[in-house]
Every structure is written in C-alpha cells, then in structure tokens.
Amino acid sequence: MRDAVVTTAGSRMRWVEIAGAEPTRVYVHGLGASSPAYYAAVTHHPALAGRRSLLIDLLGFGVSDRPADFGHTLPEHADALAAALDAAGVRDAEVIGHSMGGAVAILLADRRPDLVARLVVAEPPLDPKPTENPPPGSVFAHTPETFRERGFAETLERVGPFWAATMRLADPLAVLRSAVGLAHNTTPTVRETLTKLSLPRTFLAGDRGEEVRDAEGLRAAGVRVVTIADAGHNVMIDNPDAFARAVAGAA
Known about the structure:
Blueprint: E1 2-5, E2 12-18, E3 21-28, H1 35-43, E4 51-57, H2 74-87, E5 93-98, H3 100-111, E6 116-122, H4 144-159, H5 161-167, H6 172-184, H7 190-196, E7 201-206, H8 215-220, E8 224-228, H9 235-238, H10 240-249
Parallel strand pairs: 3-4, 3-5, 5-6, 6-7, 7-8
Antiparallel strand pairs: 1-2, 2-4
Helix pairs in contact: 2-3, 4-5, 4-6
C-alpha cells in the first residue's frame, strides 16, 4: 500500500499499486465503496493485466484518512485525487471511475488534462438531483449530527450487506457530504463537462441499471456508450469479463 499527503492539513490518500507497464490505469470507487474491493479482480483479467494500476481510495473512504475539515464536494475529491496522482508520478493515465468515482474522474480530466489521457466512467451520476422535502430515512433528511447518531446505521441497513461491507469502513460525515455533493452536482454540470472534453471517453452502463439519460446526446458529443450485459449498477462485479473487455477496448 502507498500513500500521499493531499491536503494542506496533511490528510493522506492511500492506494494499492500493481506494478506493470505504462500508461498507468487509475481506478476510482463510488460512494461508500473502496477501490481494492471493487476492482482487484478485474485488474488481473487477461484483457487488463500487465499494466501499472492504482486502486485508490478517496478521502473519507476505505483506507484513506477521514479529515473532518474536508468538504467532500466533487471538485474537492478531484483535486485531492490529482494531488495523489502527482505524488505517484502519474501522467497521461487511463482513469476508470465507477458511480461517484466516475463523476470525480470527469472533473479530474477537466481540471488536470495532463493526468488523464483516456476516461472510462461506469454508471456515473451526471446531473443534479433535488434534495428538498426528502422522504424519511433519506440521507438528505439528516443533519451531520443526526446522521452520525442514527442515519448512518439506518443507511447501512437499507443498502444491504454487499454495499454495507465497504460503506461501514467510511466516515459517516464523508458519506453524507459526498451524497450531498453528488446531488448538488457542479456548475457547469458533470454532464456538460463530460461532453466538452476532447479526450477519448467511454460511458459504461449495466443493462439492469438505470436507463442512460440522453445517450444520443452523449454519442453526439463523441462519448462511446457501451451497455454491459447481465449487469446492474456494479458492472465490474456483476460482469467482470465484459467490463474488462470494455475498458480494454477504450484504449
């Protein structure tokens, strides 16, 4: 395991690094997840093996630090990730991001084009979502205090044992703040940022996941949209063979 200081306060991000040939592949997890748990198997798939690979945990998640003074917005996650990649000597990487990690990867590519040569995003949230009048039990119904007191435990119960296995490693405040940051999105939106990028971009969607909104608009902007058969939101877990081949095909 390697690490790097990524904030002025000294917070560290950590990652598992697999030695191999350049260019580097960087794997970024979703909300409440951890990159080694979600990606370790596919990095050894014949279609992807042999490349230097960084399986990195965002601040507040997995084995990375849990700073209370970090905002966990999408731009802040992207900037912290950039600092980690700088420390790792990464340039012109192929960045693979799942769910929230896909949104972070899109912003990373926009803010630091020197770090990202190719982008693969799996089921990323591209658009803002309303948080007003949330239903009981919703993350958005909580303050930081009530989320720590009971909301986090309720969330772990609601998401089920698979997701909870990695979410329980996360800082509750990181889960809450990151969820709010995802819902608020960015200006311009993550979708708008993705469509204006000029690097090779691939959007992966499970055929059992949510329908891709405005897939034709993405294609018109030069984004390669690929459906992964027999997969829901966690495409790399549900169909690792098709996921690996799709990532390799983005090169």
